[in-house]
Write a structure and sequence with these properties.
By secondary structure, the chain is an alpha/beta fold. The protein contains twelve helices and 16 strands. The chain has two domains: 134 residues, ornithine cyclodeaminase, domain 1, CATH 3.30.1780; 168 residues, NAD(P)-binding Rossmann-like Domain (Rossmann fold, 3-Layer(aba) Sandwich). The strands form two sheets. Strands 1, 2, 3, 4, 5, 6, 7 and 16 form an eight-stranded mixed beta sheet that branches. Strands 10-9-8-11-12-15-13-14 form an eight-stranded parallel beta sheet, with helices on both faces. The radius of gyration is 19 Å and the shape is globular. It starts with a strand and ends in a 7-residue tail after the last strand.
């Protein structure tokens, strides 16, 4: 068993944004071709009121194709950690051999989860704004995910020059600006204090909050706006129904009271989903933008992306001699 610690994972993935984006794109294509196995995620919740916002999610997945991989991510989301000064999410990934089923690697998963999330958002931003790429972005929610989103957007959109930062805690937004300067030094950052004004000023928006229920619409957005709805529960059902919606997988994202699930409940169907990102990447579907309807990308966060990136990390860690190997984890 190879154990890869957070430092090992971060070391392997440092400055690999372009490669990770392409890996995510390849995996989306395989998923759209039916070359993956992706059961619904399992949500572990708790009966005590003090754990009302907390959950631990299990994501089993298999990616086929030329480099098959199978395993499971176990990721905890405890929003109260943010107020306590620690990260909201923590995760571990187990990879299994496809020869005998035995576990081969135990990988710290929070770094992988953040980077595959950001890579999918950046990939979608590049695909959905092709031919008219934005030079600025509004980041709503100043945490780990939007920091990575900015890092990957800078790689995917070379013309990106400005990032406006908005958070319900202005002090957090101000502190976040320094971290953004380190993650994307060519992008100028500023703190937005008026959300309505900021929504109208930027054609690209990334939503990565800890919201558990819808709290905003996109009425203030200008024409030709693209929204990366990473946190999935920010937008009202009416807003979703009024948008051009792109998803990673409709069966996965229309669950667990996401904004799209609420929209589905309101109208009794999923006709509001225009296309999956994998089909757009493969050219088996096209997207027609309408000037006064925002395009909203809502990625559930497919476990198959975690497996693909964890295997990428494992291969390179093996080559570089990183991690801790436990020879007697399994019986001989």
């Amino acid at each position: 068993m190879l154990i890869l610690r957070r430092a090992d994972v971060a070391d392997v993935l440092a400055d690999r944004e372009a490669e990770i984006i392409e890996l995510v794109g390849e995996t989306y294509r395989l998923h759209d071709e039916g070359l993956t196995s992706l059961p619904h995620s399992t949500f572990l919740r708790f009966p005590e009121e003090r754990h009302g916002r907390d959950r631990i999610i299990g994501l089993p997945a298999y990616r086929g194709g030329g480099r098959p991989v199978a395993g499971m991510k176990w990721i905890a989301s405890f929003p109260g950690n943010v107020e306590a000064g620690t990260e909201r999410a923590s995760a571990a990934i187990v990879l299994n051999s496809l020869d005998d089923g035995r576990p081969t690697a135990f990988v710290e998963g929070a770094v992988i989860s953040a980077k595959r999330t950001a890579a999918s958002a950046a990939l979608a931003a590049r695909e959905l704004t092709a031919g008219n790429a934005p030079d600025s972005v509004l980041l709503i929610g100043c945490g780990v995910i939007n920091l990575e989103v900015l890092r990957f957007l800078a790689a995917a959109l070379p013309g990106l020059r400005e990032a406006a930062l908005y958070d319900t805690d202005p002090a957090r937004a101000a502190a976040f600006a320094q971290r953004c300067a380190e993650a994307a030094p060519k992008v100028t950052t500023s703190v937005a204090t008026d959300l309505t004004e900021a929504l109208g000023a930027h054609r690209l928006i990334s939503l990565a909050t800890t919201a558990a229920a819808p709290h905003m619409d996109l009425a203030a957005c200008g024409p030709d706006t693209t929204v990366l709805h990473v946190s999935l529960r920010d937008l009202t059902a009416d807003t979703v129904l009024g948008a051009v919606n792109v998803v990673d997988d409709a069966d996965h994202v229309c669950r667990e009271r996401t904004s799209l699930d609420l929209a589905q409940q309101a109208v009794g169907n999923r006709d509001f989903v225009a296309a999956p990102i994998g089909a757009l990447l493969r050219g088996t579907a096209t997207l027609r933008r309408e000037p006064h309807r925002p395009v909203v990308f809502s990625p559930f966060g497919l476990g198959v992306l975690d497996m693909a990136l964890a295997e990428y990390v494992r291969e390179r860690a093996e080559e570089r001699g990183l991690g801790v190997r436990v020879e007697d984890f399994l019986p001989a």
